[in-house]
Amino acid sequence: MKNKEGIDQGEDMARLGLNREYVKRILNLAIPVVIEMVLGMVVWIVDTAMVGRLSGVALSAVGLGGQLFFSSVNIFAAIGTGATAIVSRHIGGKNYERGNESAVQALQIALVLGLIMFLCSYFFFDKLFILSDAEAEVISLGTDYLKIISPAALFMVPGFVASAILRASGDTKTPMIGSIIVNTINVVGDYVLIFGKWGFPKLGVAGAAIATALGQIVGYLYIIFCLFRASGMIRLNIRGLGKVNKKDFNQILRLSGPAFVNELMINGGRLIYSFMVIALGTVAFAANQIAVTAESLSYMPTIGFSVAATTLVGQSLGAGNKEEAQEYTRTAAFLGAAFMGLVAILFIAFPVPIVRFFNHEADIISVAALCIRIAALEQVPMALSMVLSGALKGAGDTKGNMYICLASNWLYRLPAAYLAVYVFKWPVSALWYMTAFQYVIETILFGIRFKKGKWAGIAIS
Fold first, then answer.
1. In a domain, 14, yes or no
2. Which residue in 287, 352, 429, 452 is a FRET match for 248, CA 20 to 30 A apart?
3. How many angstroms separate the CA atoms of 327 and 233, rounded?
């Protein structure tokens, strides 16, 4: 294929130091993930945009309750990280039977964790709102939102792990279809239940929770079902459920343990950070919520590149090819950084139109627009850190991610945010500068860890 100047695009890629076949394979894996992630963000964006039209209090309540719930799901679903490393390694080594055995064990663990997550989110997590020092009405609405959405955890945790297993085998399209189902139900449900359309009652925040929960349940049930009827390299047998393979069980826990701690630190730190932001007031929290939501769309494609790196590094190591794993990582990092560099330009040029999509209150718009401009600084380092993190996970180096998260989040970002909010009384925009520097720190640490190459020697059997 040639460009307008008649130069073969393969030659263009070669001049950039890229292997055309590697780029093609990365894109084949990444594009469905990008679509899935973007659609997945629609759940958050639709809730934010529609609830934002109710009031700033309602927006803060959904932001607080939703962040607590979805952050907790990510923590419980960390078992999928170990499953991805193990299954992708078996697939790369063409040992499909072992891949299926490992996948069954991971799904069984996820079913139990989903039940625990549901019980915690319904009976306990709302108590954490007291730590936020939020307004009484925000806490009340946030608690209602959390309790209504909690049953979705029964399906989301095993659904997340099922998606990870499918991606490890190279199937990124099925999770994408599941995301389409989730978002179709959620968007329609939000419209009719939040505002009371088509004869349905006007439920406000409760309507947003019902729509989101229903979409998540149906979509992830579809993904789990596909795991058992898949025609690819991974196809589980329902009769395998209930059987415990001690070797796989221990291996999954060994690799997923640091991933669990890592997600706990990331999402727990994010929650603590949110509590700090809400201490700055409802306007600051609502503005921060809008900026975070807008930025989340920017890194969705890079999540796709990160997932592709995870899968391809694992499969390359399973085939005994370390050099190929390194090349896939380098290519994915380049693609991610190039895309997010373009996003940074958009953030600098058009922050106000982006914010107006979510809210029309002048004081919120001015603060959120400034935060989005600052977010432009972190786009490229964020892309690099995400891809390198994904590559290390694919190799089974979950401890590396845990150590780096500890350094960047708990030794730098949270203490710095505490000083900014409670000691120096700085505005929320100062926290965004700190976050930009955090991604620079992560990129350097991930780069050093990857360059050392110890990840290639991690044994998986």
1. no
2. 452
3. 24
